């Protein structure tokens, strides 16, 4: 079996931490559960010897973490309906619905966008790696909107280059709690949250550079219309909701969700970064973040510049309709 080895040397300030906690701190891309599994399999060696999870590391300990290489797994084609926005000989652009994972994972092997693509496009295998054929960028499972996929290696490389050099312009629609300034930029580095392993945060010592630009389109103020027949317990009298147009200048995991949350304007409906009691509409059961990739601008492999658009899906339109009915709408 092939392994990737990470060698760590314990400094005095980290002495007496539990072994699993120390490794999680130093290798934030690995989950705590994954690290504990590696320790149990004797893939974490302290001074060339296996130790228990609860071992307290000592200053100058040398720790080798052996991470097995992922085992390739060929996804199975599935006849899943796709909303095609554009298709030519090089690429396909899809309006992904919320709830659809982009690619298979260790916990979900089927019912993903990749499974659907392998049925729709017969020669995708091998592009961009076995598990992610043709995938150049991704959206979170519960984010809806535009995603472009390469049909062959040349198109894949063409798109990868544009994403790396930040020539691709990605615009999102987002509903957030609160009233941000009319326009601005969040550019704090982002890294994995050490306390909540599923989350990312800007409150980290070491993170990847990230830049998010936003513009406030409108705000629904906290004053309720007297004639409204709706009563939603999750709404407080002092709560306002704003619609933002957001441009991603970089593409970090959960970037918009993290930047908005840490700036004090969390996304409506976000089940990970917002407490459940305040993150959903009782009448609508909006159990996903109100985030939609609405515009994608790039140069196609044919050399033609193109801008793709996807209208806001029905669940978010329903939320906005309810806001229009319940709250005073203000446009800057």
Number of helices: 6
Distance between the termini: 59 Å
Provide the succession of SSEs: EHHEEEEEHEHEEEEEEHEEHE
Look at the helices and sheets and give the structural class.
alpha+beta
CATH class term of the largest domain = Alpha Beta
Give the integer mean of the pLDDT values: 85
> Roughly how many Å is the radius of gyration?
23 Å
Q: What percent of the residues sit in helical stretches (DSSP H or I)?
A: 10-25%
Label the overall shape: globular
Q: Using the 3D structure, state the CATH architecture of the largest domain.
A: 2-Layer Sandwich
CATH-derived topology of the largest domain = Pseudouridine synthase
* CATH homology-level superfamily of the largest domain: Pseudouridine synthase
Task: Domain count, please report it.
Answer: 3
Weakly predicted, low-confidence segments: 225-237, 277-283
Main sheet: strands, sense, barrel: 10 strands, mixed
Strand content: 25-35%
* Total beta strand runs: 16
What would you note in describing this structure?
- The N and C termini lie far apart (59 Å).
- It is globular and about 60 Å long.
- The chain has 332 residues and is of the alpha+beta class.
- The longest helix has 13 residues.
- Helices cover 17% and strands 28% of the residues.
- About 6% of the residues have low confidence.
- The strands form three sheets. Strands 5, 6, 7, 8, 9, 12, 13, 14, 15 and 16 form a ten-stranded mixed sheet that branches. The protein has a four-stranded antiparallel sheet with strand order 1-4-2-3.
- A hairpin with a 7-residue loop joins strand 10 and strand 11.
- The chain folds into three domains: 66 residues, RNA-binding S4 domain (Structural Genomics Hypothetical 15.5 Kd Protein In mrcA-pckA Intergenic Region, Chain A, Roll), CATH 3.10.290; 81 residues, Pseudouridine synthase (2-Layer Sandwich); 162 residues, Pseudouridine synthase (2-Layer Sandwich), CATH 3.30.2350.10.
- Helix 1 crosses helix 2.
């Amino acid at each position: 079996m092939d392994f990737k080895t990470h060698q760590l040397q314990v400094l005095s300030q980290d002495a007496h931490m539990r072994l699993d906690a120390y490794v999680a701190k130093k290798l934030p891309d690995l989950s705590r559960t994954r690290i504990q599994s590696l320790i149990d399999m004797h893939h974490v060696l302290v001074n060339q010897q296996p130790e228990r999870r609860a071992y307290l590391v000592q200053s100058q300990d040398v720790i080798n973490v052996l991470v097995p290489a992922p085992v390739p797994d060929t996804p199975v084609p599935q006849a899943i309906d796709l909303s095609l926005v554009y298709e030519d000989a090089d690429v396909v652009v899809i309006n992904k619905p919320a709830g659809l994972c982009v690619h298979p994972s260790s916990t979900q092997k089927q019912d993903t966008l990749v499974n659907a693509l392998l049925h729709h496009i017969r020669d995708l295998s091998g592009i961009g790696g076995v598990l992610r054929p043709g995938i150049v960028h991704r959206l979170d499972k519960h984010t809806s909107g535009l995603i472009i996929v390469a049909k062959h290696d040349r198109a894949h490389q063409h798109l990868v280059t544009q994403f790396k050099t930040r020539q691709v312009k990605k615009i999102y629609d987002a509903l957030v709690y609160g009233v941000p300034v009319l326009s601005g930029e969040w550019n704090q580095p982002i890294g994995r949250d050490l306390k909540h392993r599923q989350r990312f945060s800007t409150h980290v010592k070491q993170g990847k550079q990230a830049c998010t630009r936003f513009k406030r389109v409108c705000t629904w103020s906290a004053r309720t219309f007297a004639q409204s027949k709706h009563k939603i317990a999750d709404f407080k009298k002092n709560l306002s909701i704003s619609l933002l147009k957001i441009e991603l200048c970089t593409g970090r995991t959960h970037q918009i969700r993290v930047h908005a949350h840490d700036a004090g304007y969390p996304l409506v409906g976000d089940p990970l970064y917002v407490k459940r009691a305040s993150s959903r509409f009782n009448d609508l059961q909006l159990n996903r973040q109100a985030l939609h990739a609405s515009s994608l601008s790039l140069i196609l492999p044919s050399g033609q510049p193109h801008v793709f658009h996807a209208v806001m899906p029905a669940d978010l339109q329903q939320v906005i309709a309810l806001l229009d009915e319940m709250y005073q709408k203000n446009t800057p």
